[in-house]
Amino acid sequence: MRALTRALASVAAAVGIAATGSLATAGTAMAATSPAPRSAGAASPSSASAATTWQAMDKVCKTYTALDGVTSRGQICAEVQKRVTDTGSVTGYRGRVVLAPANGYEMKPTTYHWNTGEGLSAVCAGGCAPQSGAWTSAWSPVHTAGSGPYKVQGEFGDGSLWDLHASWSAWQTADQTCLTYTAGKVCVRYEVRGYRDTLQERSRLSYTPVKGGYIIPISIGVGSKINGNTTGITRTLCQPCTKRTTSYSATVSRDTPNPGGTNEYYATARFEHPNGKTSTLKAAITG
Fold first, then answer.
1. Which listed site, 8, 200, 205, 276, has its alpha carbon 20 to 30 Å from 2?
2. How far apart, in Å, are the Cα atoms of 277 and each of 127, 216, 247, 271?
């Protein structure tokens, strides 16, 4: 568990967003798709600095119920935007909370934070008032230390608490193994990130050939051994078997199992050499 905690600390320092986008999730979570208007403070295209626009990154909404598990208290949404230059670079993030209380219920946001090592910040300077009708907070100050999951929390009128996550951090390499063969360099990486309120892990196989060389990727896998129990998933790449004569990369990912006890978290990759021999590389963290 200590090893995974150290690996996830690198997620907290992540900069930017995952290049491959988000994974599908179930429930009431929704991916925002429409871009926001240009920020009033954005530079003009003729400015010496790159022009920027605020674009939708992620939006997650959840309907909360009363203690009977049926009666709706209303809906709360956490929303994140990213600031993008005209060259496509992401230079900042901002978040806000949107409340839609059901009739007779109150909601009050209190604090938020970005899971990038920063502490709690107040949603409203001096504290938010309880809200009994539709209400949207101001956007948070621009956050530039990487996206990370945006977590906002608060309380209902009866004092019970709520919290909601949106956004995700970049994939970070927790461990990697690279070997150079006559056909080129092959690496397997064990990578981690925070996606909304879920920790995720993945295996990445990458190949850099030398002139005339090739490999045949067979499979990649990501898994863990927790208290003696092994779980994992494998992606077959040999469908059909293809010679890779140019730079190549493939991934497989999953939600990270809950840590506990003595663990190993690992990524593996299997491939075939031009002489027909097969090799398996493994990257892992233990502790």
1. 205
2. 65, 10, 20, 9
